[in-house]
Amino acid sequence: MQPVVHQSKAILSNGRGQYELVTLQVSAPGKGEVRVKIQASGLCHTDWDSIQNWDKTFVVGHEGAGVVDAVGEEVTGLSVGDKVILNWSIPCGDCFACQQGNVHICENNSPVCGNGLCGHAHDSATTQSGKAIERSFHLGTLSEYTVVKAAAVVKFDHDIPFSSASIVGCGVMTGYGSVVNAAHVKAGSTVCVIGCGGVGLNVIQAARISGARKIIAIDINQQRLEQAKAFGASHGLISIQNDLDFAQMSALVKELTQGRGADYAFECTAIPALGSAPLALIRNAGTAVQVSGIEQRIDFNCELFEWDKIYINPLYGKCNPQTDFPTLLDLYSDGQLKLDELVTKTYSLENVADGFDDMLNGRIAKGVIIFD
């Protein structure tokens, strides 16, 4: 029988720029919930943003993979010992968005665009000295154990390291889904990718898998451009200093595209000043995709939309976790999707500060916390 309560080392933040390694108490799962022993958790810029800006106490982390440790009542299809990837886009199946097939923007469970009231496991699942502690994006993966809704995990049996499986649940899915689910990139097309960090690399390899003929990577770092070519980019362009409207970059892209511009362009930098940049790179009737989740107010020159251009801002690559995660793992097993190669460096909970520092200074494509 599994213990009712686990002592769990975790990264706890006050949402005002501070975080620390603490020991929490993680209880047994309630009805419709499972407890997961986390094996690996990816580090993401969103984690850092939450530490700086959420202004509340919570367990950090929203990318993870592990093993089911306990199963609550009325849970079907999951058993103790199952390997799972955690998913923060938890569908309820009943709301308008879910009924329309848009489970990634569930009106009841989404911590981003829904009311978030139903996606969280029971409040007292994680406590500190008897006080309930919230878990980031309903998950809190920077913890040895976590309790989540059963719909927040996807079971898998693929032969894959937990470190590689852990990053599927956000960065990989966001990049891949933006290409395949949102933009529907066509074979033979030309694609530009602005920013070649973790998400940008997944946009690049998704474009390659989709059959794009020409993939133009754009970054400020030559080393990242070389890495982008290893993931499928055919061309690399160093971003031009002070070219914030991307007029000069647009001219370079047109030189590579018979004077028209790219069919698709993806912004993966999260830099507000570059929010309109993909529009400058696409041809008439092309598609610009803002992948990085810029939320600040941006002024657009409406001439950038001429003519018939489309600008979209998909959430989480329009993810349907129960179908998309197995697809990604199948692509990995077939050798088409690079996941092991994305994990540049691994860390422990004790040196998570090194991981954040490497991430913020662009030294890694993806950092992952490994649990004993």
Share in β-strands: 25-35%
H-E string:
EEEHEEEHEEEEEHHEHEHEHEHEEHEHE
**CATH fold-level label of the largest domain:** Quinone Oxidoreductase, Chain A, domain 1
Class of the largest domain in CATH? Alpha Beta
Going by CATH, the homologous superfamily of the largest domain would be: Medium-chain alcohol dehydrogenases, catalytic domain
- Largest sheet: number of strands, sense, barrel closure: 7 strands, mixed
pLDDT averaged residue by residue: 94
Name the poorly predicted regions: none
Structural class: alpha/beta
What would you call the shape? Answer: globular
Cα-based radius of gyration, to the nearest Å: 20 Å
Record field, number of beta strands = 19
Helical stretch tally: 10
Compute the number of structural domains. 2
Q: Tell me what the CATH architecture of the largest domain is.
A: Alpha-Beta Complex
Please estimate the helix content.
10-25%
Head-to-tail CA distance between termini: 21 Å
Main attributes of the structure:
372 residues; Quinone Oxidoreductase, Chain A, domain 1; Rossmann fold; 10 helices; oxidoreductase; metal-binding
In short:
This protein has 372 residues and is α/β, with parallel strands linked by helices. The chain is 24% helix and 26% strand.
Structure write-up:
With 372 residues, this protein is of the alpha/beta class. The chain folds into 2 domains: 6-171 and 318-370, Quinone Oxidoreductase, Chain A, domain 1; 183-313, Rossmann fold (3-Layer(aba) Sandwich), CATH 3.40.50.720. The protein is built from 10 helices and 19 strands. Strands 3, 5, 6, 10, 11, 18 and 19 form a 7-stranded mixed β-sheet that branches. A 6-stranded mixed β-sheet has the order 8-7-2-1-4-9, with no helix packed on it. A 6-stranded parallel β-sheet has the order 14-13-12-15-16-17, with helices on both faces. Helix 4 (171-183) packs across helix 5 (198-209). The radius of gyration is 20 Å and the shape is globular. Its cofactor is Zn(2+). One of its GO terms (molecular function) is S-(hydroxymethyl)glutathione dehydrogenase [NAD(P)+] activity. Residues 15-369 form the Enoyl reductase (ER) domain. This is S-(Hydroxymethyl)glutathione dehydrogenase.
